[in-house]
Amino acid sequence: MSEQHIQDSPAGHSSRPTSTWARGMTVFAGVIMAMGGTFQAFAGVVALANDAFYVTTTDYVIEFDTTLWGWIHLGTGILVLLAGFAVLNGQLWGRVVGISLAVISALINFAFIPIYPLWSITIIALDVFVIWALALHGRDITR
Fold first, then answer.
1. Of 14, 21, 42, 76, which has the most beta carbons under 10 Å away?
2. For 62, which DSSP code?
3. Domain interval for residue 115
4. At 77, which helix (H) or strand (E)?
5. Predicted TM-score of the model (pTM)
6. How many CA atoms lie within 13 A of 68 on its CB side?
7. What's the number of domains the chain is made of?
């Protein structure tokens, strides 16, 4: 694994070496956010366009109609997509918002498991990866 050594920061603090692996993980997290946000938004549009596409259950703690789920997924998807682009551009606010939105997305998809289980579990797993990559290596993309 090759490493690039970083010069002292303007504040006089030395920075840790940045690996290409860490930068790659952060870029991958940004791409996953952009793609996942797009797919999440499409899932929302599908729910809004066709109420019968998703089958809702009546024996679950959280009972939303399909239209509300559509708006939730559409809004969350657009926000995650925008945060993904910010992460790819090396913006600090993109990493902070990205971690926050990944947590929110995981919670939303946890509640969506009875309606679309495979999709929800896949998105939760990707959200966990995004949180890990941005929290651990998020700073490395700006170097």
1. 76
2. -
3. 32-50+66-143
4. helix 66-88
5. 0.74
6. 9
7. 1
